Amino acid sequence: MKASVRIDTGSVIAPVDDRLYSSFIEHMGRAVYTGIYEPAHPSADEQGFRQDVQELIKPLKLGCIRYPGGNFLSGYRWLDGIGPKEKRPARPELAWSAIEPNQVGTDEFLQWCERTGVKPMLGVNLGTGTPQDAADMLEYVNGSLPTYYADLRRKNGHKEPYDVKLWCLGNEMDGPWQICGKTAEEYGRIAAETAKMMKWMDPSVELVACGSSYRDMPSFGEWERTVLQHCYKYVDYLSLHQYYQNNDGDRASFLARSLEMEDFIHTVAGICREAKAQQQGDHDIKLSFDEWNVWYHFQKDGKEPPKWTVARPIEEENYDMDDALVVGCMLNTLLRNTDTVKIACLAQLVNVIAPIMTEPGGKAWVQSIYWPFLYASRYGRGTALMPEVKCETYDCAIMNDVPIIDCSAVTDGCTLTVFLVNRSEEEVECALELTEQSDTAQITHVFFDDSVERPTEKDCGSYRAVKLPPLSWNMVRIG
Ligand code: AHR
């Protein structure tokens, strides 16, 4: 099969925000306890965090890590997680039917971020929490005045403010599964009032309001409109979340799902523009795609670990090549929408629906989805360009005219990087038409498919055409 990709260096979408390559750690399953934190592990540092896990996280060059949830956030009492560890209470954790020992809290997480070289994206609880709780937490984290919570942080050992810039106003507040979920009116009001207090406390922070939990929520669209009616003036981003499944084994449909993600982004971006116009606003609301991934294996297998334990091992997905291809397509989708999507968090990072897995007391390793993310994060920086793809299409159960090739392109001024997913079960010979590369430009082709354990560089033949193996993720660098 043949295809072509034309890339014009003038077809600029927007600069790629570093936070497009972010991730997420929730107090859920074994993400924190026996994931990033395990004091008895042979690789644990003085603070009890596993350095073997940290070594797998670092190459991902994450823009930021969202914390502490997720659904966990909506019942979280942040004061439980600060001060002497022996005095912290264990609590029933209602979102995931577990026991939360509170041995990792705000200080431990923020200091781990400092050691890992990653910026935090913190959430405030708008389920059981109040605007005052949120303002208090912000004072604790960023306060520089001689006031109660800033002093408490100093007393707990961190003299300087942490200066956390990015904050989520709750999580998935439209979901009936959410602890103290809200109607759009209720959420819009509390989010607006919380945002006002937080920006008065620290005008430098950026705030993310909750959009719909996923594209097919019955209130999708109306939720966004109502929330922005209340919050437009006070917030900077609106969130999107989406996980894809392949429960019926229909690969063709599964691989096409990222096209729905594209439509989701365009629709939400349109609603944000509408809110700006209606309120005669002065700023654009950008998008924070702060939960995205593939998620279905664990539930499909019907596993249900015992409830009410610490670190119950839930949602430990075992990812395969098809999942890596969908993740590759989702990354391409994010790159094609860098004009509106500024933040995106692969959910999650360790053990729970994660690229990195651990054994308690044992080894840590990476899964298939780690690789497309790593390469995109390492090489997909600079300015995103809109590729023009000519290829065959296929029809599947969920839509028609799915392009065989999914593509994104980025230039850093010297090197052009093209990411390509071949959705078909045949090899595709893909011609590259580049407007500004000389015939002597060096080319590198890295591919990933079921025949290899990790992405592998291969002989690419001519600069003008690359062979994309069946069902493969590919990166081509020219320059
Ligand atoms: O990432 C796992 C869960 O998925 C999060 O807690 C929640 O926000 C979403 O439904």
Q: Can you tag this structure with a few keywords?
A:
single chain, 479 residues, alpha/beta, eight-stranded parallel barrel, seven-stranded antiparallel sheet, 10 helices, 25 strands, 25% strand, binds alpha-L-arabinofuranose
The total count of helices amounts to 10
Q: Quick check: average pLDDT? A: 96
Q: State the helical fraction.
A: 25-40%
N-to-C terminal Cα separation, in Å? Answer: 26 Å
* Share of residues in strands: 15-25%
Radius of gyration: 22 Å
Low-confidence region ranges: none
* Global outline: globular
With strands numbered from the N-terminus, the spatial order across the biggest sheet is: 3-4-7-8-9-10-11-12
Hetero groups: alpha-L-arabinofuranose
Could you say which structural class the secondary elements and strand pairing correspond to?
Answer: alpha/beta
SS elements, strand count:
25
How is this structure best described in words?
This protein is an alpha/beta fold and 479 residues long. The protein is built from 10 helices and 25 strands. Strand 10, helix 7 and strand 11 form a beta-alpha-beta unit. Helix 5 packs parallel to helix 6, helix 7 packs parallel to helix 9 and helix 9 packs parallel to helix 10. It is globular. It starts with a strand and ends with a strand. The relative contact order is 0.16. The mean pLDDT is 96. Bound molecules: alpha-L-arabinofuranose. The site of alpha-L-arabinofuranose has 10 residues, from loops.
